[in-house]
């Protein structure tokens, strides 16, 4: 009996009632931690890039892809924060003199950096 391409690649079929269906499984994937940016990108893929999400999921590369996006976004986020702090002159001296102002300005910088990372990496 001639084998199909699926069978030649190591696949097998299973009988369910009158039908013979291929036994499809998702390849095992190394589990990597995904934080805020990776989860936001995952939500974006599920909602707006369904084909990309499905392709990554079925190929077994979704977790590695999201971990890479998360790492890139976190590094970019930290670089932006440091650059903005230097540009605005926010130092430890300001933190000692006026902690409330330092907190407000730092929170503003973090919000701006989060927005920039979202536009450049997460939702691109």
UniProtKB/TrEMBL annotation:
The lineage of its organism: Bacteria, Bacillati, Bacillota, Clostridia, Lachnospirales. This is Transposon-encoded protein TnpV. Pfam families: TnpV (PF14198). It comes from Faecalicatena orotica. It comes from the Bacteria.
């Amino acid at each position: 009996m001639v084998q199909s391409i699926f069978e030649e690649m190591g696949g097998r079929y299973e009988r369910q009632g009158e039908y013979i269906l291929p036994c499809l499984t998702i390849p095992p994937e190394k589990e990597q931690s995904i934080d805020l940016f990776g989860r936001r990108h995952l939500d974006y893929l599920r909602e707006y890039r369904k084909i990309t999400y499905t392709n990554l999921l079925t190929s077994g590369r979704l977790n590695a892809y999201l971990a890479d996006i998360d790492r890139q976004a976190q590094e970019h986020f930290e670089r932006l924060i440091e650059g903005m702090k230097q540009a605005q002159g926010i130092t430890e001296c300001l933190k000692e003199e006026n902690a409330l102002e330092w907190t407000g300005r730092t929170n503003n910088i973090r919000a701006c950096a989060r927005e920039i990372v979202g536009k450049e990496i997460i939702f691109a």
